[in-house]
Amino acid sequence: MRIDVVTLFPEFVRQCAEIGVVGRAQRRGLLQVATWNPRDFATDAHRTVDGRPCGGGPGMVMRIEPLRTALAAMRQADPAPAHVIYLSPQGARLTQGRVAALAGMPRIALLCGRYEGVDERLLAHEVDEELSIGDYVLSGGELAAAVLIDAVGRLQEGALNDAQSATQDSFTDGLLDCPHYAKPLHDPYGDVPAVLQGGDHAAIRRWRLKQSLGRTWLRRPDLLSQCVLDEESRALLDEFRREYLASRVP
Ligand code: 4FV
Question: Which family does it belong to (predicted)?
């Protein structure tokens, strides 16, 4: 997969994509991240990329021309069509489902805003999709782009040493993840649950599913309402709820 990033801070984005699983995915040739700095495509002496907002108001706005030229250069560099994404609070919320869909594309391009944002005409003519990583305001789209590169990069076939870990991710089945433990089995902070020490993999699978269901019910009931639970899951959730409510009776 190829990811092109249009950003005023290319070194930051490249560094984010060189660490951990994503960095390894790049070294394994599973992922290629390229950056394009609009300032390199500004034609005036001061290499201006921003302008005062038309109609007045605070801050600055990213101008059309350097971005249009940078996007044209990006397309020129590789014939593969790019699905262009603008990261902004006005976008649809990024979900694991959308991440999985994007991870299957051969090429995406991420447009990182700065200042108050980007001239709307550029967005209307060049952007296929607008995505938000959350309802808060960042000083730039680079962190959101790094989030997307990481989420998509780790799903590239062969990126995770144990492909299974992607299938057992949070949200993959719409539920929050179960608790995780490592040795020591006994510690002042508590013991590892006995079921995880018993080697009964069927019981371990049920325990983990029950914990995921219970946590989702407690912490993200909005997610649970979007899930279609099978008979086993309904029974395990009922079991969790009964035990939880019983544990809270003084
Ligand atoms: C953002 C978000 C975000 C808005 C103005 C960049 C900033 C500045 N991007 N999810 N939340 N972007 O806050 O994606 O240009």
Answer: Belongs to the RNA methyltransferase TrmD family.
The pLDDT value given to residue 168: 67
Residue 54 Cβ inside 6 Å of ligand 1? The answer reads no
DSSP 199: -
User: Is 164's pLDDT higher than 80?
Assistant: no
Q: Alpha helix (H) ranges present in the chain? A: 10-16, 20-27, 64-77, 96-103, 120-126, 142-153, 164-167, 201-219, 221-224, 231-248
CATH superfamily of 2-153: SPOUT methyltransferase, trefoil knot domain (3.40.1280.10)
Does 189 count as an annotated binding residue?
no
How many Å apart are CA 138 and CA 151, to the nearest integer? Answer: 19
Written as six digits, the tokens of 206 are 């049920």
Give CA–CA dist 61/45, Å, rounded.
19
pTM of the entire structure? Answer: 0.94
- Residue 7's nearest CA partner among 92, 91, 67, 60 is 67
Catalytic residues, by residue number, are: 89, 116, 154, 169
